[in-house]
Amino acid sequence: MYLIKIDGLGFIHSAWEDQEPRFCATLSVARSWPTLTEALRFGNNHLTSRLPIGWELWEETTDDLVPLIRPQPGKS
């Protein structure tokens, strides 16, 4: 599963709505995507043009949460 995190705000909440974005620190209520393509599509369509800060893509494995894409320092 793939999750999206916004630095300082948390993970995208499972109850996300474009009109009222929600974030969370707890993975149990975070939204997840089954494929990398779906997670990237959501990030590009709903976050990139709306947020002045970068978003991170994480993969949830059986043992850990692994960062796949993170903003470079000093860039957003």
Q: Can you walk me through this structure?
A:
With 76 residues, this protein is of the alpha+beta class. It has one helix and five strands. The model has no long low-confidence stretch (mean pLDDT 90).
Structural class: alpha+beta
Regarding quaternary structure, what we see is: single chain
Mean pLDDT: 90
Query: What is the string of helix and strand elements?
Result: EEEHEE
- Biggest sheet strand line-up: 3-2-1-4-5
Total strands: the figure is 5
Give the biggest beta sheet: 5 strands, antiparallel
Radius of gyration: 12 Å
In the predicted model, the low-confidence regions spanning at least 5 consecutive residues are: none
Tally of alpha and pi helices: 1
Global morphology: globular
Q: What percent of residues adopt helix (DSSP H or I)?
A: 10-25%
End-to-end separation in angstroms reads 24 Å
Strand content: 25-35%
Gist?
16% of the residues lie in helices and 28% in strands.
What attributes does this structure have?
single chain, 76 residues, alpha+beta, 5 strands, 16% helix
Fold blueprint:
Layout: E1 2-6, E2 10-12, E3 23-24, H1 36-47, E4 55-60, E5 65-69
Antiparallel strand pairs: 1-2, 1-4, 2-3, 4-5
